[in-house]
Amino acid sequence: MEVLLKVLTVGGTGYIALLAVMFLLQGALIYFPDTGRQILRTPKDVGLDYEVVWLTTEDDVRIEAWFVPAPAPRGVALLAHGNAGNIGYRVDYARLFHRLGFSLLLLEYRGYGRSEGKPSEEGTYADARAAWRHLVMERGFPAERIVLVGESLGGAVVARLAVDQRPAALVLASSFVSVPELAAELYPWLPARRLARYRYDTLEALKRVSCPVLIAHSREDDIVPFHHGERLFAAVKGTKAFLEMDGGHNEGFLFTREVWREELGRFLEQHVPEGTASIGPR
């Protein structure tokens, strides 16, 4: 009996210690900026000119973005990437949107790439707002010509932005319902929902979004299960479309690139007015 009590005591102490570590070090489980500090590719590697833009957020953090212009653009896409790597890993998006007649602003989060600061949930939301202000106030793009695009974690970021603004459309790729929901599936032996200090509640944001929404997800996603995409799609009350992709979480676009381009192009043609965007002084 004494041995059993000791085993239970040691096990209980270890479990409590694990809970404390999970609670305190959640940021290290959500953000992976060190996987892509070095910029390995730029739009020039796919034959496109671009401009490095430095934005200052409302809390005075200096972040980087790349603006890739398209000739006589129909509009502009604002891309918020996933939780690992940097904008250099997303250069193929520039080629994709260029073919569709859209300029592109690739947003780098604070603490990622060459941006200053340290990533946080409220910080990434502020980063997205700074990018929106740049497109509207400095580039002169009207809201009805701006498409918000988010992959994985970035989906939660731009969904939140779409609640406060009125973009032409919102595109979410491989995005999750919320951090607590995903954590509960990844760590079923932990009270993950109660431990979660980060929300990134994409589902709640989508309930309040009024613009057309395209959800893209793969049944083979090995990180964010397919039913997350289904739940997000069901939450959208207005105009919406769903694209089922192939491949794992980080491979979906590689496996369905042509289908992705065709479906995305069709969606944008339906929801972004024809004609060239009226752009301001820059």
UniProtKB/TrEMBL annotation:
Keyword Transmembrane helix: yes
Transmembrane regions: 12-32
GO molecular function, one term: hydrolase activity
InterPro entries reported in the protein's UniProt record: AB_hydrolase_fold, Hydrolase_4
Domain Serine aminopeptidase S33: 72-183
Cytoplasm keyword on record: no
SUPFAM superfamilies assigned to the protein according to its UniProt record, in alphabetical order: alpha/beta-Hydrolases
Gene3D superfamilies hit by this protein: alpha/beta hydrolase (3.40.50.1820)
Pfam families membership: Hydrolase_4
Keywords: Hydrolase, Membrane, Transmembrane, Transmembrane helix
PANTHER family, A to Z: ALPHA/BETA HYDROLASE DOMAIN-CONTAINING PROTEIN, PROTEIN ABHD13
Protein name, as recorded: Alpha/beta hydrolase
Lineage summary: Bacteria, Pseudomonadati, Pseudomonadota, Betaproteobacteria, Burkholderiales
